[in-house]
Specification:
Oligomer: single chain
Shape: globular
Distance between the termini: 25 Å
Helix content: 40-55%
Structural class: alpha+beta
CATH class of the largest domain: Mainly Beta
Radius of gyration: 20 Å
Low-confidence stretches: 1-11
CATH superfamily of the largest domain: Regulatory protein AraC
Mean pLDDT: 90
Largest sheet: 7 strands, antiparallel
Length: 313
């Protein structure tokens, strides 16, 4: 399903969801490619290099990577094709590949998109997924497909963008760990290991309720020990960590969409907008609405040529 996002007065940006991706006609052109392989396997030639993908995994490709289908077995996959300017009008290909982009991304909360743009010796454009990661990505991909098919939804682009940014937000964290030079050696009885497992659980479940009993069962550690170890290693209580993670995850929806504060609160695990506003103000010393206005004003000041006339610069 292809829909066109009007990101400024003169430019129309496509975003496409493919429910049944078979890789036989992958045309990237001026788009990035995000694909979730749910079942089976596929062999592709990426930029001349033969690569084998097996479920569950997620594939991230940029528009410079030629894709040639070789074969597949029992394949079930869904994909999203999107231009980086769908995330924000200022995220042009030239800019995201520029030397100054890291500083701009830090200043304006642009996504770095490294899983799409960078290859290393141990990263060839795909990441194997743990079960909770796979479930979360699958839910968000289905939401993207549903939103793009809802012609009566006047804010389809904002909702699609929010789901896509949720995927990329977690994906960039997984990418940083996956490409780390030194891989951790897990001792499942050590506090570092079971606290890491709990943090991974929070990353994939923050949108809903997280119960302490479930965390203790997950790592087979009693409540007192888990609370003490988590505070010792992270410097935060579990409750504060969850709230902070939800707030951090919500920032880009505030900055780059026109969703209401109430909808954003519910999207990121806050039952009530009033509570979201209260904890947001406590953390950032500004209301969510004022934060949004300030971020838009900052972008307009830095990128006046691109943001002039934009629906949401």
């Amino acid at each position: 399903m292809v829909k066109m996002s009007k990101c400024d007065c003169y430019k129309i940006v496509p975003v496409e969801f493919c429910e049944h991706e078979d890789f036989r006609d992958v045309r990237l052109d001026d788009r990035l490619f995000l694909c979730l392989i749910s079942n089976g396997s596929v062999t592709l030639k990426l930029d001349g290099c033969l690569t084998f993908f097996i479920a569950p995994c997620i594939i991230c490709l940029d528009n410079r990577c030629p894709v040639e289908y070789i074969n597949s077995s029992g394949l079930s996959a869904s994909s999203v094709y999107f231009s980086p300017v769908f995330l924000n009008v200022n995220m042009t290909f030239d800019r995201i590949r520029s030397e100054e982009y890291t500083d701009l991304a830090d200043k304006h909360d642009f996504m770095l998109l490294l899983p799409f743009l960078r290859r290393t010796e141990n990263y060839l454009g795909f990441i194997p997924l743990e079960n909770d990661q796979f479930i979360m990505f699958g839910d968000l991909m289905r939401r993207i497909g549903t939103t793009l098919n809802d012609y009566e939804d006047g804010r389809w682009s904002c909702r699609t963008r929010t789901s896509l940014m949720k995927i990329i937000f977690l994906l960039e964290e997984i990418y940083n760990e996956y490409t780390a030079v030194r891989k951790p050696v897990y001792n499942f009885k050590s506090p570092q290991t079971y606290v890491s497992i709990v943090i991974g659980y929070i990353r994939t479940h923050y949108q809903g309720k997280i119960h302490m009993e479930d965390l203790c069962t997950l790592v087979n550690v009693n409540r007192t020990t888990l609370l003490k170890s988590f505070k010792m290693i992270t410097g935060m209580t579990i409750s504060d960590f969850i709230t902070g993670y939800r707030l951090n995850a919500s920032l880009r929806s505030l900055e780059f969409t026109q969703l209401t504060i109430d909808e954003i609160a519910k999207e990121f695990g806050f039952n009530y907008a009033s509570y979201f506003i209260r904890v947001f103000e406590k953390e950032y010393h500004i209301s969510p609405s004022d934060y949004r206005q300030q971020k838009v004003a900052d972008r307009k000041a830095e990128f006046p040529a691109l943001t002039a006339g934009s629906l949401f610069p």
